[in-house]
Design a protein that fits this description.
alpha+beta; two-stranded antiparallel ribbon; binds adenosine monophosphate; binds magnesium ion
């Protein structure tokens, strides 16, 4: 499909006017393409020549509107670092409409009703980070929003220093957040809250549409999807950094990439967001915080669903829904095809061992994927091989109970444990080059992100231990 043939729908605008603010994009000066993502383009049937079509840049910049497009920012509220903020919303994003199941949105397109005191813009740096990481997460099989392309410009914005502004076009099957429900609940707008729930069911859970018990079942699905998302974050070693309820997707997607990080050395208490002084959103806290966030969602829904039923589901989240999802993710990482009693304990022992061994998280699992009884390779990558050795004794016992061959196990593990993840130091190299107008590394990393399980000899250095000076550093929220 060509851009001129796109026909967008805007079902969200059928909701009450309080749900959104109609926006006028404020174009950037001298926009140029940084990267076009063909994979995401295929989802909406865009042909690969789109990259060379000047209207693509214009579409991201707001000077070309596809047919049917109407720009709007969505309102929401949210609990930020534990405190309720009744007035958030898309402060710098503008939705264009929906193509098939994909809601297209530009981020960094200028001020909206919800910008509060901020400028509605996004820095090149943070835009490249979101663009690359959302694609990397997708190719690792983690539920996430996607990114279609990114443009840079000569428009200057003030952050800790003067930077150039960029715009990313993001795509998601839903942009509704836990905080969207909170917004209407705390304003006591229960009719609008119900309309929102019906919208979410139509958009995200259409199989529940005619179900009399659909609101409760919607809540259950959100709980289960959140469990799967968090389990996959914990498995891969992803730290989101700002798990406020406005950054929690009702579809259980990873959204709003800010100061995120992939773990370098496995540190349970690692905090990627350096403004998070107490580690509320540290890597190890993510499961607890997801429970807390789901509780906040439940507190916004009593006009639709009985509190007792929601509480029962939340209790289940803590006792088995999340723990089972996590152990399942880890079983796959360990190449265990059978589900046996004691697997949870094996995983717990592994977490302690990884922490004590000071070992690179990605490298450990990839090396383990080649494990055949010879432990040298694993000793070599750990600071404390004795800890690794003790855990491997447990692992050996468990492997003996498996019925599939070593080779089958290894093959499955090599398709589960990536050779490459986008660590922050790698993205930083792309950003530093971009600051000198060299965007080649963005496409290079996009390519690596698309092939996380492949052996790519030319990028071998990115598969190793993170250089010491870059390990587990914190990032600022300012973007
Ligand atoms: P975040 O936690 O980064 O997802 O953002 C929290 C809120 O701040 C959201 O409502 C954003 O839209 C808004 N926001 C962040 N940066 C800006 C900006 N530069 N201009 C306007 N709003 C912003
Ligand atoms: Mg956000």
């Amino acid at each position: 499909m060509k851009l001129q043939d796109i026909q967008l729908q805007t079902p969200y605008l059928e909701l009450d006017a309080e749900f959104y603010d109609l926006t006028e994009p404020e174009p950037l000066d001298e926009p140029y393409l940084i990267s076009f993502n063909e994979d995401a383009g295929k989802l909406i049937n865009l042909d690969s020549q789109t990259k060379d079509n000047p209207d693509f840049i214009a579409m991201l910049n707001g000077t070309f509107s596809p047919k049917g497009a109407r720009n709007f920012a969505m309102c929401y509220a949210g609990h930020q670092f534990g405190n309720y903020n009744p007035w958030l919303g898309d402060g710098r994003a503008s939705n264009l409409g929906k193509l098939g199941s994909w809601n297209l949105q530009v981020k960094g397109s200028g001020e909206t009703l919800y910008s509060r005191m901020a400028d509605g813009r996004a820095a090149v740096r943070s835009s490249i980070r979101e663009y690359l990481m959302s694609e990397a997460m997708h190719h690792l099989g983690i539920p996430t929003t996607r990114a279609l392309g990114i443009i840079g410009s000569k428009t200057k914005i003030m952050r800790t220093k003067t930077e150039n502004a960029a715009i990313v076009m993001r795509m998601s099957t839903s942009w509704v957040r836990f905080g969207t429900f909170e917004y209407f609940h705390y304003r006591k707008e229960h009719v609008k809250l119900k309309a929102l729930a019906e919208y979410v069911i139509a958009e995200s859970f259409p199989h529940l549409k005619d179900d009399e018990d659909r609101f409760y079942k919607m809540f259950c699905e959100v709980v289960e999807r959140t469990a799967n998302m968090i389990a996959s974050w914990q498995g891969i070693g992803f730290n989101h950094g700002v798990m406020n309820t406005d950054n929690m997707s009702i579809e259980g997607l990873t959204i709003d990439y800010g100061p995120f990080a992939m773990l370098d050395d496995f540190r349970y208490g690692y905090i990627c967001n350096h403004t998070d002084s107490i580690g509320r959103y540290s890597y190890g806290q993510q499961p607890n915080i997801s429970y807390w966030n789901l509780t906040k969602l439940s507190e916004a829904l009593p006009s639709l669903i009985s509190k007792e039923r929601m509480q029962k589901k939340l209790d289940d989240y803590g006792t088995f829904i999340y723990p089972d999802a996590y152990v399942e993710v880890m079983r796959k990482k360990l190449g265990l095809s059978l589900s046996l009693d004691g697997d949870g304990e094996l995983v717990e022992a592994l977490v302690v061992a990884l922490h004590d061994a000071y070992v690179d998280n990605t490298l450990f699992f990839r090396t383990l994927s080649h494990y055949y009884g010879n432990r040298e390779a694993l000793y070599d990558i750990a600071m404390d091989p004795v800890v690794v050795d003790n855990w491997l004794k447990l692992y050996d016992v468990r492997l003996k109970k498996e019925t599939r061959s070593q080779e089958e196990r290894q093959n499955a593990m090599l398709r589960t444990n990536p050779k490459y993840v986008l660590k922050n130091y790698m993205i930083q190299i792309a950003i530093e080059k971009a600051e000198k107008d060299d965007y080649s590394m963005v496409d290079t990393l996009l390519n690596i992100a698309r092939n996380p399980y492949e052996e790519l000899p030319e990028f071998e250095s990115f598969a190793g231990d993170t250089p010491e000076e870059y390990k587990n550093i914190g990032l600022s929220c300012s973007s």
